[in-house]
Fold these 3 entries.
Entry 1:
Amino acid sequence: MLMRRALVAPFLCVSLAALSSYGCDDGNAMSSAPSAVRAQTVRNEARFVNRLDSVPHEVTAVAVPAAFCPFVSPFLAPVNVVVSANSSDLFLQDMQLQFFDIAGVRGGSRTINSSELLTLFPSMLIPAFGTRTFPVSVPFGCVGGQTGTLFIRVVTVDTSGRQDVGSVRVNAR
């Protein structure tokens, strides 16, 4: 009887350890494409977007004079989107900004495609191991409140043609 207990206890400990480590798995081992979240892929390619951030992490809504909904929104949320590259040059391809007020009501949105990005910025290149700041703003306030969250989605392409999508969330007050 004592021998049986001595064998069961280690088995239970090993089983519990295996199950608890499964719950902590972040999925890195099964990735097959580059990602801004995962450190590497099955083919052992390093991710090419090192960081996507905003400066500051909280923005203050700016009132727009002579606003007239729905043609001119009463507020703008200006934000600096910071993109950092790892070992390869990156090119900013697309940016989407979406505002939600604190009640979850979808406010203004803005999609900036590659042709509009060319008119806003002289270059969309983020050099290898470098960082670029892209100042943008999203109009909002015709629907919903003035306080909320701005969601920013950025699409970049590296010199090999690999596309990556990153996102960041900014509080708007």
Entry 2:
Amino acid sequence: MPDNFNKLTNKRIVDHIQYRNTVIVGEVTAAHINRTYDVKLSGESNAYVTIPTIFTNPDFEVGESVGVQFGYGDRGDPIIIGRDRRKIQTPKSITYNYV
């Protein structure tokens, strides 16, 4: 039992460290009255809902690119840290004709 617990604990720690101090590009999909936003992150299929921001008077618009960082590397604790000039890139399918 302790070996299984140690393996699970170590996996969680490594997963958290992976996202620590990483800024991910996202696109605002909805703005709420309580100064939170729904943001679709690059590489994610669903949007994170009600993400707070570090600003006291945020003015992000729907469709705007923002930088999102995870508190303590926890994917369940995202926060918007500002605007981002980068755009979310969508992969394009390429077909080859080998003749």
Entry 3:
Amino acid sequence: MPKQPKRKDLPDLSELAVNPSVWLRWYEQHLRQVLQEWARRRKVEREDLELLLFDRSDLERTLQGLPNALTPAQRRKLARLDEALRQLAPAIKVALPDLAEMRRSLDIPKSHWWWFLPEERTEG
């Protein structure tokens, strides 16, 4: 079986262990891709949204371990990115109709609000 080429759209694990700003960069990149797709087609692929939600969760987990790792400017950027993510609630609802089941199976904490967007919540 031929060796699979290394994916360039995923962060290097050694970077992630050291620098939370790397997750911020990947979160921003994936969010922009999803926003562009949503603006162009009013549709987003399930895999793209899943990757985006997991990116945000990985960033949050990294920040819990290193709460002062982002600069004030990076924190402001994160707030802007999160606001843009909130605007994707309709796309998330359409592309991930089983989101509540995913949350339960993955045991997503309520502190990860991006998995519990208000427009998506139809059940507790």
